[in-house]
């Protein structure tokens, strides 16, 4: 597609340019929303920075470990695992949990505030994948197909998995915003409604993780780039998505059970 833009003597990666645009779209909004936690601005800014750095550092380390294990088991260097946004998000949540404990802030509340901007950023970032040609789809004769290349420059009619993922992320973002606004209206209109208007702190974030994981699991079946089967037809991407979905579903179930028990 358009992996690089040439501006005079400079050659700029479209992927990283779009990633910066996604960061600029999401980071200020997250900062603004985190101010609702009643902590100093410098604390919110530092927490965001450390979460971002920790998330991607954790993703890089886990990716390097996976590749080392793959090579040690006799795998091909051509089938290297790439940086995973899912692993970056999970590692970022781990860093956020430590910071919330340090500053005595509800992790669930903080994640609820961050979830919609993160999904918006992920939707924008997938446009960079489309321009870069990575995360490409399988060849298809379906009406969904578009004439697209893989990283080797082979153009075929393929599933536009990057655009499909971007559209799905945008839909999840819209749903989370709708749930949040519904909860806020409910809190304003109903006597005795929960403080946030939704079932429990962390509900919006867990809903986002569940839907995002379901999306990744589904679209992975249409992807060709970055998919190496390791358990039957399932790749590491499939297994990561299933793990995210299972964890989110279990935590939602536990919280609803706790609420029901407290109500009786």
Give an overview in words.
The chain has helices at residues 14-34, 41-72, 85-103, 107-132, 161-189, 203-220, 236-263, and strands at residues 4-7, 10-13, 146-149, 155-158, 229-231, 234-235. α5 runs antiparallel to α6 (203-220). The mean pLDDT is 87. The chain has one domain (4-263). The protein is mostly helical and 264 residues long. It is globular and about 60 Å long. Helices cover 66% and strands 8% of the residues. The N and C termini lie far apart (59 Å).
**What is the overall shape?**
globular
Give a count of the beta strands, DSSP E runs of length 2 or more: 6
| Number of helical stretches of at least 4 residues | 7
- What structural class should be given to the helix and strand makeup? mainly alpha
Number of domains: 1
Content of β-strand: 5-15%
Q: List segments where confidence is low: pLDDT < 50 over at least 5 consecutive residues.
A: none
Strand order of the largest sheet: 1-2
Distance between the termini: 59 Å
* Order of secondary-structure elements: EEHHHHEEHHEEH
Overall helicity: 55-70%
Q: What gyration radius follows from the Cα positions, in whole Å?
A: 20 Å
- Tell me about the largest β-sheet: 2 strands, antiparallel
Give a quick set of tags describing it.
single chain, 264 residues, mainly alpha, two-stranded antiparallel sheet, two-stranded antiparallel ribbon
What's a quick, concise take on this entry?
The protein has helices spanning 14-34, 41-72, 85-103, 107-132, 161-189, 203-220, 236-263; strands spanning 4-7, 10-13, 146-149, 155-158, 229-231, 234-235. With 264 residues, the chain is mainly α.
């Amino acid at each position: 597609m358009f992996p690089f833009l040439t501006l005079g003597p400079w050659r700029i990666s479209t992927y990283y340019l779009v990633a910066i645009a996604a960061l600029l779209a999401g980071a200020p909004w997250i900062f603004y929303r985190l101010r609702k936690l009643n902590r100093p601005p410098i604390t919110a800014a530092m927490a965001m920075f450390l979460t971002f750095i920790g998330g991607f550092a954790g993703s890089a380390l886990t990716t390097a470990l996976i590749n080392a294990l793959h090579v040690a088991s006799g795998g091909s260097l051509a089938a290297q695992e790439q940086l995973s946004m899912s692993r970056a998000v999970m590692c970022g949540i781990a860093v956020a949990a430590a910071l919330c404990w340090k500053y005595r802030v509800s992790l669930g509340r903080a994640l609820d505030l961050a979830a919609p901007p993160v999904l918006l950023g992920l939707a924008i970032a997938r446009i960079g994948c489309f321009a870069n040609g990575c995360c490409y789809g399988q060849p298809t004769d379906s009406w969904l197909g578009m004439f697209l290349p893989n990283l080797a420059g082979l153009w075929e009619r393929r599933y536009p998995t990057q655009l499909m993922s971007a559209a799905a992320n945008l839909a999840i973002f819209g749903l989370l915003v709708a749930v949040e606004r519904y909860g806020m209206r409910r809190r304003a209109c109903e006597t005795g409604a929960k403080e946030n208007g939704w079932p429990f702190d962390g509900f919006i974030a867990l809903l986002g993780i569940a839907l995002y994981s379901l999306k990744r699991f589904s679209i992975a079946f249409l992807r060709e780039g970055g998919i190496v089967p390791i358990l039957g037809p399932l790749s590491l991407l499939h297994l990561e998505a299933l793990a995210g979905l299972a964890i989110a579903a279990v935590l939602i179930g536990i919280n609803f059970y706790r609420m029901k028990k407290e109500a009786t």
